[in-house]
Specification:
The chain is of the alpha/beta class. It folds into two domains: 150 residues, 3-Layer(aba) Sandwich (Rossmann fold), CATH 3.40.50; 62 residues. 43% of the residues lie in helices and 10% in strands. It is elongated, with a radius of gyration of 18 Å.
Amino acid sequence: MTTAPPPVDLPVRIAEAFGDWTPRAVVFDCDGLLLDTESVWQRAENLVVAAHGAVLRPGDAEVLHGSTIEVAAELIARRSGHPEQDVRADLHREFDAALGTGIRTMPGAARILQLAGARVPLGCASNSWLSSLEDKLALGGLREHFTVLEASDTVERPKPAPDMYAAAARALGADPAEVLALEDSETGARAARDAGLRLIAVPAPGHAAPPADLALAALTDPDLEAWITTW
């Protein structure tokens, strides 16, 4: 007679948040979670805001964090009185120029993708346009980990709408309730929650963690790696 192996001792935070649930697939955000493009975007955005003389108001930073370039252009145009198409073109130009100088992966990103990808299929959902997402992941050396990419131009509505995460779950062959999302912004977290995915929030420094099943300070958290090894 064989006996069942002893139960795996999960980290307390993981057990409290997820119990014995494990994902059939995982969908990661990109900017600010896997790649340090948030600082690149912030520099580009600051240049465009200054060039157009836009005066941002309290709360505008929260709107801009995790938004699409279209949302950012519309807000900066309203605050400056300049044509939206001019602001959008400047944002594209400055961001692309900044990316051309190189891109850094966030601490722990490559390790977590390698571990998780060895166990379940992975997707990436980003408010970037698809061609930009492809380029950024390739520059960061992370493209090979993903079987599914969803972007602002692959779905009808970008984040914070749930379309992107729902589409990614379908493409990964899983029900949304069987999929784990990892996000850094409230914009993306809302999209994942509304699509029905379980959620780990890894907020950017200086930003509060959005509502999630679990919040971690970084992808290097040892509890996250310990949990993944049990999948």
